[in-house]
């Protein structure tokens, strides 16, 4: 295997994310990435969730790069990740929120070799939303997430019309768009050479509470409204769950839910979903 620049996982981890963090760290270690540039976020240092989060970091042997306290906003997430990557701008970064677990068509270091040979500076992909059996919103526990949420599909896009495209691997010098839904310029690896499955463990027991908090905070001005789609998407998701007895309607063909493990070839509709996600690329040209 040819030598490539170092690779790190970069993520902003919120005070509510302690249960997901051990799964997140284990996953990326299992695919060959053992350097973590985590930034913890909480309202203030006395936040009970922040204390649990620091305990979770210690339990998996990861020392956070930084902690940031204060009100949340999406552009803060973008700025904190840019800060973490700016310290070593020629290195590679796996960019993932704590509920985003990448699955690659090739081992990650082979993917980076392709980038370095071709001059590409980032690799894109799209969401595969993970769902509990029958569409149930299950609490995250010690059970492996792939077993606890055995279905996957285009849930975020199908319900909320949320942008599915994500930039998942990037050189530290490349500027990311908000939510790492693309880059400002740069040279992406062609999809035929590598396109990331971003397995998205958003639809858990706490999602209703989190989305109601988001709508309330944005509507009341506690969080700055940087993109009105955030309110629209959350309201659409809450309406869907209310209409289906607190579950996701996994029988809706628009959501494309199907059994899925953790192998790149597992989802029967993956190629169709990736084709559709690429069709959203025009939205990134603003």
UniProtKB/TrEMBL annotation:
<dbReference type="Pfam" id="PF13704">
    <property type="entry name" value="Glyco_tranf_2_4"/>
</dbReference>
<protein>
    <submittedName>
        <fullName>Glycosyltransferase family 2 protein</fullName>
    </submittedName>
</protein>
């Amino acid at each position: 295997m040819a030598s490539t620049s170092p690779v790190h996982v970069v993520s902003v981890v919120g005070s509510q994310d302690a249960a997901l963090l051990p799964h997140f760290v284990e996953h990326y270690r299992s695919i060959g990435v053992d350097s973590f540039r985590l930034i913890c976020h909480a309202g203030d240092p006395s936040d009970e969730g922040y204390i649990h989060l620091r305990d979770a970091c210690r339990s998996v042997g990861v020392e956070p790069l930084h902690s940031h306290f204060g009100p949340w906003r999406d552009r803060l997430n973008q700025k904190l990740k840019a800060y973490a990557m700016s310290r070593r701008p020629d290195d590679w970064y796996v960019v993932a929120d704590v509920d985003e677990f990448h699955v690659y068509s090739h081992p990650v270091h082979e993917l980076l070799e392709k980038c370095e040979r071709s001059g590409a500076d980032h690799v894109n992909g799209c969401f595969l939303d993970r769902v509990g059996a029958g569409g149930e919103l299950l609490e995250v526990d010690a059970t492996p997430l792939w077993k606890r949420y055995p279905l996957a599909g285009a849930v975020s896009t199908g319900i909320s019309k949320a942008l599915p495209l994500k930039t998942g691997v990037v050189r530290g010098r490349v500027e990311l768009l908000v939510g790492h839904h693309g880059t400002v310029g740069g040279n992406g690896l062609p999809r035929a050479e590598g396109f990331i499955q971003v397995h998205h463990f958003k639809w858990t027991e706490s999602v209703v509470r989190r989305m109601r908090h988001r709508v309330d905070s944005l509507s009341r001005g506690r969080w700055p409204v940087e993109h009105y789609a955030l309110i629209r998407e959350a309201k659409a998701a809450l309406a869907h769950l209310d209409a289906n007895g607190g579950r996701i309607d996994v029988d809706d063909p628009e959501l494309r839910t199907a059994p899925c493990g953790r192998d790149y070839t597992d989802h029967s509709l993956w190629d169709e979903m990736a084709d559709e996600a690429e069709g959203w690329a025009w939205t990134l040209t603003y």
